[in-house]
Amino acid sequence: MKTRYMLKMKQILLFSLFILWATICQSQVSYFGKALLNSQKLDIFKKTTTLFTLQYADYAELEKFDQAIKKNWTITPYKIIKPEELARYDTLANYSVFYFDAYAEESDSTSNLNIIYALKLLTPSKKPKVKEESILATVALFADPNTNLLVRTQDQQYGSKKSIKSNILSYFYNKSSFFNWSPGFLTGYLKQINDGLLANENCSIDYQFYNKVRLPELAKETLYIPQYIKEVFSSRLTLLPPSGIIAEPYNYKLKFIPYKELDSLILNKTTSVKYVVYTQRSSDKIISVYDSKDDKIIYQRFYPQSPNFEMNDLSEIKKVIVSLK
After folding, report:
1. Which of 30, 42, 101, 223 has its CA 20 to 30 A from that of 239?
2. What is the mean pLDDT of the chain?
3. How are beta strands 223-226 and 254-257 bridged, if at all?
4. Could you state, in order of their start, the residue ranges of all structural domains in the chain?
């Protein structure tokens, strides 16, 4: 991938310690409509144009990403722009923006850094040439080891805080790999955010959620597994899961599938597929199953202190299916 010039995003603050609602710890996709309702910022957002930025490599598939956004993003008009174009909108009213970012999550015993695709409302402040930012939604991303290391060691890097943040942001757009990122995946994420904000809701998923009608259909249908899950799992020499217990295997239909093939199935309006998204966030993981029929989540489970994918994760899905049949 060609290295681009430094991104002109001076006013965007990377790695802010966001004060987010507790559900972000349990949800791969989070949105905060109800929480922002009283501040009138949600109403302001609904009158904006939403700017989508992508990684530079993604613009080679611009038509597919546009198709993915158009499928489920109805709450505002939208425009896909290049990352360096964001500087033009820094202090302008009537814009919201999706871009890559990261936030720190602190608890009594752990400290996690999470990389996200964030939706923010940009509004001019009382200070000249300064804007206020309000977080409306986030998508947790599963980044490659080099990206995670770069973020985690930012305090050890040379240069001013401003230059370090700029370098890391440039890395996100130019070199990072996000395993749970593609046009097909994006359309599923946007469905949750779009509908949640339209309904003025917060995301409020518990440690486990499942659709009692849709999930049992997998007993007779194929569950599609993105190829990255197989590759991540195969790269680890794991004889037993950390629990030491091997659950009854998932013996319904499974199919491992490359990104492009899965994207085509997800974006195809005449067919529907159910597929898994595995998201690793620092020391945790989230296993989700989406149904491309309407791009809704039909299963999700949050695993604290258990970041690696295991075949037992599929076994847990089977266990729920059996309990509902």
Report:
1. 223
2. 84
3. parallel
4. 22-198, 208-324
